[in-house]
Amino acid sequence: MRIAILASVALRREPFSYSPGEKFVELLAEGLIARNCKVTLFATGASITRAQLQAVVDRGYKEGDPIKPEVAEYLHMANLMEKAHDFDLIHNHFGFAALAFSGLIRTPLLTTIQERPSDDVLPIYKKYNQTTFYVALSQVTRHPELDYLATIYPGLDLNEFTFNDEPGDYLLFLDPVDMDHGAPQAMEIARKAGRKLILAGLIKNKEYFEKEIGPKIDGREIIFLNLTDQAERVRLLASAYALLHPVNYDEPFCLHILEALACGTPVITTKKGAGPEMVIDGQTGFIMDNLETAVERVNEIKKLNRADCRRLVETKFSRERMVTDYLEVYQKVAEGSLGKGEKGLRPWGRYIVLEEKARHKVKRIEVKEGMRLSYQRHRRRSEHWFILEGKALVTINGQENLLLPGMAIDIPAMALHRIEAREGTVVFIEVQRGDYLGEDDVERVEDDFGRL
User: Fold this and answer.
1) Residues 110 and 40 occupy one common structural domain
2) What's the Cα-to-Cα distance from 326 to each of 94, 153, 155, 158, 393, rounded to whole Å?
3) What are the C-alpha distances in Å from 365 to residues 63, 98, 370, 371?
4) How far apart are CA 302 and CA 433, in angstroms?
5) Whole-angstrom Cα distance, residue 13 to residue 44?
6) 214-273 pLDDT, tens digit each
7) At what angle do helices 319-334 and 20-34 cross, to 10 degrees?
8) What is the pLDDT of residues 50-94, one digit of tens each?
9) What is this structure's pTM?
10) Neighbouring C-alpha atoms within 13 Å toward the C-beta of 187
11) What is the pLDDT at residue 420?
């Protein structure tokens, strides 16, 4: 399957990243490549990936590229949409802006909605709800006015994380240091529990950090670390007594909760956001009601089996599980079985609808060498086939016809027919005419793929 992944151009894609969105795209792309998918990543030119890379800017606009952000984004989206015909499916991680192009292309567009749409952006998601496809990142990101094919959680490459059953005694805070993620609450929990706290989150608001957090860092009971690589991050996670995640808002997902669990480190989180979807209360951590209960739960961490934390990620949050779930959705979308779009994959090849009116439909069909369509007939339409490429054997009511490029043949309604690619991939134009042109007007009498 030929998959295009549309990522942001704010930052480059790389294995070590503080941004869950950036890391999620990297994990998915690498996982799809491991399953032999042909992946093209539309991102910044400096991105680190094994996928084929398509870029219109070298660096992300948040990394100092001089181009205006809006210009970078529209050039980026246009670069993919102009190449849309090269792909069986486009997986959009860019957000709602890409939806505006969906009516101009024939390749199906699948969007992972990475946060619950707010009221001011919901109208664009509703407009394209019936013509494109949505996947939710977590249950908390779902909006009741939208339709979703699935909820697919991000998954980790467990080979990157070392399980440790003999942790240290410190608590760890890895969230960004800002007003939403609860750094002051984490410090208060650690102080009341009598445990050392290591803060190692990205400083998103320097003024807030210097005013509210910095003065409380003493280098002994509260320590701040500036992480520089993934190995250091894993060591810190694996040796932590517990991870504190006292988030103050409805966070759509938290990747480092999974990273902690993968190392065997329990997590104490709040009821807000997706934390309760990732932590089993009383087994792989605790879901706190307030600071007082969080302090009590710190003292109960020692009762938990760290192997249960690792096991949860292995069974529910692995990269392999995530890729399997997405491939199932991709197949349904790409084969056209969900009733949206004008392009479809089939066991024998692929097709694309070039035009459709009330009484006629025009398709471009490709049949892989050695493959053949089912021996079938249609009750309410006739067909005209014109061969563009390859050597085809066409059978109509038992009579075989060898067709070369430039040759054509007519198939009346109710005539049994099939086409077989004898040499090379056979590409042909199919013109359907009739009073009903639905894909369900087919009666198969023979089929190589068990679809009778």
Assistant:
1) yes
2) 17, 10, 11, 18, 36
3) 44, 27, 15, 13
4) 72
5) 7
6) 899 998 999 999 887 888 989 999 999 999 999 888 889 999 999 999 999 999 999 989
7) 70
8) 999 999 988 776 666 677 889 999 999 999 999 998 998 999 999
9) 0.79
10) 20
11) 97
CATH number at residue 210: 3.40.50.2000
CATH number where 440 lies: 2.60.120.10
State whether 180 and 301 are in the same domain: yes
pLDDT at 16: 45
CA atoms within 13 A on the CB side of 98: 30
Average pLDDT of the chain is: 91
List the structure tokens of 351. 């097709």
Per-residue pLDDT band for 337 (boundaries 50, 70, 90) equals: low
Residue 108 domain boundaries: 2-151
Give rounded-to-5 percent helix, strand, coil for the chain. 30, 30, 40
Whose tokens are 């942790």? That residue is 167
Counting the structural domains of the chain, the total is: 3
Based on the fold, state whether residues 137 and 170 are members of the same structural domain: no
DSSP annotation of 62: G
Q: What is the DSSP string of 234-288?
A: HHHHHH-SEEEE---S--S--HHHHHHHHTT--EEEESSTTHHHH--BTTTEEEE
C-alpha neighbours within 13 Å on the C-beta side of residue 306: 20
Whole-angstrom distance, CA of residue 121 vs CA of residue 125:
7
DSSP line for 302-335 = GGS-HHHHHHHHHHHSBHHHHHHHHHHHHHHHHT
Closest CA to 129 of 105, 154, 102: 102
Q: How many residues does the chain have?
A: 452
* Whole-number Å distance between alpha carbons of 74 and 376: 45
- 420 token code pair: 């077989």
Distance CA(442)–CA(344), nearest Å, equals 16
pLDDT of 443 higher than 50? yes
Alpha carbon distance 75, 77 (integer Å): 6
